[in-house]
Design a protein that fits this description.
Dna Ligase, domain 1, 6-stranded antiparallel sheet, 453 residues
Length: 453
């Protein structure tokens, strides 16, 4: 039987509402990570400080939706590669971003809402966090019965994923430095030990160390530019894995990183150039501009993918402010230079004071596409959590899919039962069902309740 999109998406929704048979062994995962922290002299229990980092509930996505997300990534990559795109977006970018660098940018994050209406790209990030945590999570899955694990697919082959991530960093290095040996990477963030995702910095350090690449976890103040060499107390830094949200090194305390980047004193990834090409929120406005895309001779099939899967996005201006305020319930407002959920507002919850401020700043408005939901089982009872799906991408290829479960306006790690969640692929057709319409998987929640055509 040919794959049926309607069945696939409906069945994924059914599983998200009813299946509690497969999930993450969160206590076991924390125990393994805690042992790693203890080996570094960190005895504070991560479960106490990060109780909502991982969800035990997986998220089910239709195979058709997984293909759609990959199509969106490929469509955007093809447009970004065009000289017309680069000329247009770099013309308004800071000078530091206009310097062309050979690196492609590690861990590009494409964030989607998924549902019966398809997939919708919400934003692109160039320093998407959580990838190493999600790799650890892939290794901590459990099922109540063997049939569940056999029945469900995984959109990414977990075997060898760690080696592929190491090769991504090696490739960034080779693009910039050729065959010279990569000896030391600095993963750089402000007060890194205080960052919520600090545990993944330790995972990164362990992984790269196992491949004979030293990693230092550093605050920018721990790096110095001497001559044309970026140095840490332990020695020269070859590569900066940049986790700062000062995307263009504009803060005074980052001036030495600004200079090191311009002088090519080290390889930076992600960097200001890739942020300008991908993550500036104005880029979503351009990707929704069919007239401009046709002017650039973008294939119509590519334009169709972009318009179908990116919610309409416009810049907030004096000319459209009245319309946006009147219709605000249907829009989501984001600062052009923002990251995560900072400064973002759902229109229906916005006050006149906040909107007055938005009109004075640099904002885009995106048509509201509500997220879908995953029912989770808590001690207090079943509850529905919102979900989005992040595709971690390098060189146009998806490396990892991961979901985030949350309550509230935007994603967070404060929701009981929420956090990072693994993604499973739901079956595409009714051949997975028995002739009587049921699935013999030892789990009543997985009954095939959809009628056969």
């Amino acid at each position: 039987m040919a794959p049926t999109t309607d069945f696939s998406t409906q069945y994924a929704d059914l599983l998200n509402r009813q299946c509690f048979c497969i999930g993450t062994d969160v206590p076991g995962l924390f125990a393994r990570m805690q042992a790693d922290l203890a080996s570094r002299g960190i005895t504070h229990r991560m479960l106490d400080s990060h109780p909502h980092l991982f969800s035990s509930a997986p998220v089910f996505i239709a195979n058709t939706q997984i293909r759609q997300m990959r199509e969106v990534v490929q469509a955007i990559e093809s447009v970004v590669a065009m000289p017309q795109w680069r000329e247009t977006v770099l013309a308004s970018a800071p000078l530091i971003a206009q310097q062309n660098m050979p690196s492609l940018g590690v861990f590009m994050g494409y964030d989607f809402h998924v549902g019966a209406g398809g997939v919708h790209l919400i934003e692109i990030n160039t320093n998407a966090g959580g990838a190493f945590l999600n790799v650890a999570m892939l290794q901590a899955q459990q099922a109540c019965c063997e049939g569940v694990g056999n029945f469900l697919g995984k959109p990414i082959d977990a075997e060898g994923i760690e080696s592929r991530l190491v090769e991504m960093f090696r490739n960034e290095w080779i693009l910039a430095r050729g065959e010279r040996p990569l000896l030391r990477i600095a993963i750089v963030d402000t007060a890194p030990a205080s960052q919520y995702l600090y545990p993944e910095f330790l995972l990164f350090k362990d992984l790269m160390g196992s491949k004979n690449i030293e990693v230092v976890i550093a605050d920018p103040a721990e790096l110095m530019l001497e001559g044309n060499v970026l140095r840490h107390a332990l020695g020269p830094v070859d590569f900066v894995y940049n986790r700062l949200t000062d995307f263009y090194f504009e803060l005074p305390e980052h001036r030495h990183l600004h200079a090191a980047y311009l002088d090519d004193a080290a390889v930076f990834s992600p960097n200001p150039h890739t942020h300008a090409l991908y993550a500036n929120k104005r880029n979503l406005v351009l990707l929704c501009n069919a007239e401009k895309l046709r002017e650039w001779n973008v294939p119509q099939a590519t334009i169709d993918v972009l318009l179908r899967n990116i919610p309409g996005t416009i810049a907030v201006t004096a000319d459209n402010a009245e319309m946006l305020w009147r219709d605000r319930k249907n829009w989501f407002f984001k600062p052009v230079s923002g990251f995560g959920s900072r400064g973002a507002y759902r229109g229906e919850k916005m006050t006149t004071r906040v909107f007055a401020q938005i009109k004075q700043e640099d904002y885009v408005a995106q048509q509201l596409v509500p997220p879908s939901a995953r029912t989770t089982r808590l001690e207090s009872g079943d509850t529905d959590l919102k979900l989005d799906v992040r595709a971690y991408v390098y060189a146009g290829e998806v490396q990892i899919f991961a979901a985030r479960l949350y309550q509230g306006q935007t994603t967070n790690f404060r929701t009981p039962g929420g956090g990072f969640a693994p993604v499973y692929a739901a079956p595409e057709n009714l051949d997975a069902c028995n002739m009587d319409g049921s699935l013999e998987l030892g789990c009543a929640a997985l009954s095939c309740s959809l009628e056969k055509p």
